[in-house]
């Protein structure tokens, strides 16, 4: 799942993910609220293993998304790894993200093949839930 309110960033990162064959199915959302609604209503088998999340979005920003996600049932939270993908270079943002147990990586936009490989390795080395 890719969540970003910026259409250009969403398009570019979607194309990189598709080009690198990172996933068989990619859901894209331009709103954190829409993504949360999907995650709340979707059957567990349809919930993605990885969410690429922008921080700076209107209405439901990345921090609010993470807060709401932290209230999800364990069977959902244990399935999903969140990668914060942002243009923010704010050290406070990074520090807040690094202590979040649902986030496995903080990356700067845009995605590229090396960054996706980092995520792939992180996922492979994660303990099974």
TrEMBL record:
Keywords: Phosphoprotein. Residues 1-124 form the Response regulatory domain. It comes from Fulvivirga marina. Transmembrane segments: none annotated. The modification 4-aspartylphosphate is found at residue 54. The keyword Phosphoprotein applies. This is Response regulator. SUPFAM superfamilies: CheY-like (SSF52172). Pfam families: Response_reg (PF00072). PROSITE patterns: RESPONSE_REGULATORY. GO terms for biological process: phosphorelay signal transduction system.
